[in-house]
Each structure stands twice: as C-alpha cells, then as structure tokens.
Amino acid sequence: MTRVAAIQMTAGLDVGLNLSTACKLVQEAAEAGAELVLLPEMFLCMDGKQYPALAAEQNWLETLKGWCRSLNIWLVAGAVPMPSPSPEETRVRSACLVIDHQGDVVGRYDKIHLFDVDVSDAQGAYRESRRFEPGSDVVVIDSPVGKLGLSICYDVRFPELFRQLREQGAEVILVPAAFTHRTGAAHWEVLLRARAIESQCFVLACNQCGWHDEHRQTWGHSMLIDGWGKVLGQLQEEEGVLVADVDSDSLESLRQSMPVMNHRRLV
C-alpha cells in the first residue's frame, strides 16, 4: 500500500504566485504521507505566450527538484513547456516530468494528442498545435508506487495509448490535465473510469479548476480510480489536495481473476 496525492489548483498568469500555491499544496500532500505527488497540466502558467521563455530558462525546474529533496517525495510535474528536440522547431513540447526524491528527472513524456477543437464555452476554440509540437513516444517508468504510465489531458480520449501503457507494464496511469469545464462536466469521469477498467490500472487524474481568466474555466474533480473502475477519492471544483492509497495487491488479484490481456482477439 502506497500513498499518492493529486494537487488541484487554479493557475493564473503569474508564475511566481502559481509556484507558491503549488508549494503549499505539495507540502500538505507530503505531510499527509504521500510518496508521489502529481501536479496538473500547465500548473506553472496558463498563458501560452510565456511558454517559450519557461522552456528556455527552467529556473522553475530547480525549484521543483528542491521540493523533492526537502520533502523526500517523488513529484510529477503534470505538464510543463520544454524545448523540442528538433533544432529547427519553433514550438515547444508539452512535457510530463517525473522527479525522484533525490531531485533527479527520471522520466519525461511529451504529449502526443494535441487539443485542437471547438468548444461552446467562453474561450470558444483551442488550438494546441499552434504552440506545441506533438510527441510520439509511449513512456512507462518505475516508481515507489509501481510502474507509472504517463499521459496528459486530451490523451484520455485515445484508448489505444492506454492499451500500450498497460502492455508496457503500467500499474498506475497518471492523467494531469487542464480539462475544460464544459467537456469535463460531460466526459471527464466516464473517460477516466473507462480507461481504468480497460487497462486494469489505477488512474490518478489531476485537473486544474476554476476560472483562469475571463475566458477559460476548468472542471476540477481530480480523482483516483482503481482497476475495477471504482472512484477511491475525488475533489470537487476548488483548490485542494486529494490523498489516497494505491494497493498493488488488489490490482494483481483483479488481473488474475479477470485476465483480459490474455483474452484479446484481433479482428
């Protein structure tokens, strides 16, 4: 049994203020016994104009590493702007970074599926591909919680990615997000529970919440779901910390009693 936490916050335009809020909530999670703490997508800032500078300078990364060392936790920076590996690419990557308790970055996943959609909300339209270059690699890494499968937000609509994470050994799949309020109310929980049931993995989903400016509102409702699809803990629409336990023994029992991976038939 290991304890995990999801940080739910309302990131604005001020990176320093966002880091201060995140620090307070991460400390709260560590004091509650969490060994692994997940931050939401773009917790540093919700202003896309600042992403190139954040990707280039990365002073914030040293701050996150310091939290890990001082609190003795693993921290997953849900999604942050990072440079593209292609020198000619002007866009940044939306990257999930895993930092261990010694402050070392031990894993990185670059968001594969970019949110280019029209939504009937105050923002109206989202075009992530204008600022982000998509990634292409499926990433699973070892951690104190078990094997972590990494994803980001819009990825949750693509079950084939979660199937590949399970095939690569994932036991806990992380879904840091800035899921819109409109789509979240309709689809957030049902998508997450479906991905947990299909993959027979724990799913720890960490969302932003509230109004970030006059146009953008996110849904919140961060949650931990087990491999049976049961919601083990959930926040509502305010900033806070979700702390819950992951039981690897129960997951193994489920997989043995219903070995769906052995029953697959390709048609």
Draw up the topology in text:
Blueprint: E1 2-8, H1 15-31, E2 36-38, H2 51-57, H3 59-71, E3 74-82, E4 93-99, E5 105-110, E6 116-118, E7 125-127, E8 140-141, E9 148-150, H4 159-167, E10 172-177, H5 181-199, E11 202-207, E12 209-211, E13 217-219, E14 223-225, E15 231-234, E16 240-246, H6 248-257
Parallel strand pairs: 1-2, 2-3, 9-10, 10-11
Antiparallel strand pairs: 1-16, 3-4, 4-5, 6-7, 8-9, 11-14, 12-13, 14-15
What best-fitting shape do the alpha-carbon axes yield? Answer: globular
Helical content stands at 25-40%
In which order are the strands of the major sheet placed?
5-4-3-2-1-16
What structural class do you assign from the helix and strand content? Answer: alpha/beta
CATH topology: Nitrilase/N-carbamoyl-D-aminoacid amidohydrolase
Number of helices: 6
CATH class: Alpha Beta
**CATH architecture label name:** 4-Layer Sandwich
The CATH superfamily label reads Carbon-nitrogen hydrolase
N-to-C span:
38 Å
Helix/strand order, N-terminal first: EHEHHEEEEEEEHEHEEEEEEH
Extended strand count: 16
